Amino acid sequence: MTKKPNKLPNLEDSLSEITQLIDRMEHSEQTLEQSLDSFERGITLVRHCQKILDQAEQKVQILMQNNNQEELIPYDNNDQQQGPEIDEANND
């Protein structure tokens, strides 16, 4: 099996590496062991990305609670009534 780096990359680099792994698995002839290594690395990166996104979501929820909002308001570009108040005078 291949050596795994001690530190996982940031979200953007992880997503880029996942894309490269997928491309390599789809378009090159790898041995079974190489394919399994790529798959294992991809799963590790996907889990790492999910953890980063979960942490970001928790931070957003904490910030929203600090603003006395109990749940996240879905963003709807066509209906500004549901989103945060925006000074419409500045929207030209």
From TrEMBL:
Pfam families: Exonuc_VII_S
Claim: Plastid is one of the keywords in the record: no
Annotated localization: Cytoplasm
CC annotations in GO: cytosol; exodeoxyribonuclease VII complex
SUPFAM superfamilies: XseB-like
Keywords from the named record: Cytoplasm, Exonuclease, Hydrolase, Nuclease
One MF annotation (Gene Ontology) recorded for this entry: exodeoxyribonuclease VII activity
Annotated family: Belongs to the XseB family.
Name of the protein in question: Exodeoxyribonuclease 7 small subunit
Lineage, broadest ranks: Bacteria, Pseudomonadati, Pseudomonadota, Gammaproteobacteria, Legionellales
Record gene name: xseB
